[in-house]
Amino acid sequence: xxxxxxxxxxxxxxxxxxxxxxxxxxxxxxxxxxxxxxxxxxxxxxxxxxxxxxxxxxxxxxxxxxxxxxxxxxxxxxxxxxxxxxxxxxxxxxxxxxxxxxxxxxxxxxxxxxxxxxxxxxxxxxxxxxxxxxxxxxxxxxxxxxxxxxxxxxxxxxxxxxxxxxxxxxxxxxxxxxxxxxxxxxxxxxxxxxxxxxxxxxxxxxxxxxxxxxxxxxxxxxxxxxxxxxxxxxxxxxxxxxxxxxxxxxxxxxxxxxxxxxxxxxxxxxxxxxxxxxxxxxxxxxxxxxxxxxxxxxxxxxxxxxxxxxxxxxxxxxxxxxxxxxxxxxxxxxxxxxxxxxxxxxxxxxxxxxxxxxxxxxxxxxxxxxxxxxxxxxxxxxxxxxxxxxxxxxxxxxxxxxxxxxxxxxxxxxxxxxxxxxxxxxxxxxxxxxxxxxxxxxxxxxxxxxxxxxxxxxxxxxxxxxxxxx
Length: 470
Ligand code: NAD
Fold this sequence. Notes:
- By secondary structure, this protein is an alpha/beta fold.
- The chain has two domains: 19-242 and 438-464, Aldehyde Dehydrogenase, Chain A, domain 1 (3-Layer(aba) Sandwich), CATH 3.40.605.10; 246-426, Aldehyde Dehydrogenase, Chain A, domain 2.
- Helices cover 37% and strands 19% of the residues.
- It has a seven-stranded mixed β-sheet with strand order 12-13-14-11-10-15-16, sandwiched between helices. Strands 7-6-5-8-9-17 form a six-stranded mixed β-sheet, sandwiched between helices. Strands 3-4-18 form a three-stranded antiparallel β-sheet, with no helix packed on it.
- The structure holds nicotinamide-adenine-dinucleotide.
- Nicotinamide-adenine-dinucleotide is lined by residues 141-145, 150, 168-171, 200, 203-204, 207, 218-220, 223, 226-227, 230, 241-244, 275, 372, 374, 400, 440, 445.
- InterPro entries: Ald_DH/histidinol_DH (IPR016161), Ald_DH_C (IPR016163), Ald_DH_CS_CYS (IPR016160), Ald_DH_CS_GLU (IPR029510), Ald_DH_N (IPR016162), Aldehyde_DH_dom (IPR015590), LUC3-like (IPR044086).
């Protein structure tokens, strides 16, 4: 078990060696080291990104070709990327392959997306034409749960729009991103996308760098606040995709047996480390015991292990601080009166393993309900009236997603309408189309990613206004 983590206490002694270790969460062993870049290096990086921007923005057809080549290069490098991603992040290999497939699909999707030039008229004899212009160098800051997929959600629309990108992965998962950067470099012009790695304050300096024109960040709420404050220094545009505490509301006509597997994986995929995972389940009181038993049975049966093992369905928690958080939140829930119907504890042996946990008799005020556990722990709470369930589902500061489950999909959809969030699902959860907008409300974020909205989030309107010649 490692005793320290790379985000560490910041610029500790030893940073002079300019590298930091990256650990395998399944074994606790060091996989490799990554460059611990000094924030002062950012001046040259952003300067090169700015110079590369002038060529990149000039030719939309060349951009499309380069992004399609980039998608092919990612696919060709899939095996190496997937293994490295599993080793540093912990997820099962099949999920790493899915993440890489999503990355290349996103490059293809945005390669073909072009902003629409529009003419508008207010009845006067003038011609107003709205065109779209890129912003300049974009800073993309990414967390450790989906290092490649979330990076692509930022760089694919930013590049397609004609911007250049400086990408900073989490210090817990820099290796696959660095490899991805070198794969993309085979398809993109020099300095169009640059990966920088290092511990804080590298990210803080990047978001407040005067040469950055858009900061697109995915991560936790407190860091999001710091990022918004940092970007305010240079008045860069800010897009924040932050935490979530999605509720799943089961209706009284739900077929428990039929939905258990889907509901379980909506909560436990990637070891629960998904912003839009199901993080709370609300169940009619008369079905509560059945749902707890069904989910607990599923949790006890799941194969937990090293993500490289083909039998593994659930890997380790991704890093030591996150494991400590999951353990603390679970212990607190038990101290508040909860009972673990499955799991509730770390697993023995090396690595950051936590038994998949189903909690019942949970106090609604426990942090596992009010906050974001971001791990393999799921509280199941009973409700007496639908109004009570909807109020509870809407009762946190988050508003990323939510879902409603029942045999009558129209009735479930009518309840889903009442959820205060960005995406509401019926009878499933956390499925997204590349073409849809993705946005949270409240503490879940600012701005819109995904689909054409993600492209326009990386563009500014430019209006040409002239009299019509008669
Ligand atoms: P985090 O906020 O700790 O770190 C995110 C990134 O910010 C990392 O790259 C980190 O190094 C960097 N960073 C840290 N301090 C910084 C600073 N002062 N300035 C700039 N950058 C800084 O988040 P995490 O623990 O890596 O990720 C988990 C969180 O991400 C969860 O809250 C989860 O819900 C959220 N998340 C949200 C979405 C979404 O789309 N809404 C998706 C995935 C994860």
